[in-house]
Amino acid sequence: VGDASLPGERLEEAAALERLQRLTARLEEMEAWFDSVKAEAASERRIREQATTRLGLMQERLDRLKEQVAAQSAENKGLRIRLNELRDAEPDSHGRAVPSRLG
Length: 103
Prior knowledge:
By secondary structure, the protein is mainly alpha-helical.
């Protein structure tokens, strides 16, 4: 019992407790930092996932628009052919253009 009350040992014990408190505080700081890093990583992952989803939707939209342009171009070509046929047509007895059957 008398050994524990020596001034040198009390100083060592106090120093050890102080060091332990500093280490505990540092550990809490590191845990807080790590939690913030994890939260930031999760946020960035969500942003990447959203961007990937948006890119997919934009690609689908672009594909649909390309299909529509192709269909409109084909329709336009058909209408131009028909217009040229009507320009070259002979009028019937009622004055309406009737395409010639040469081609």
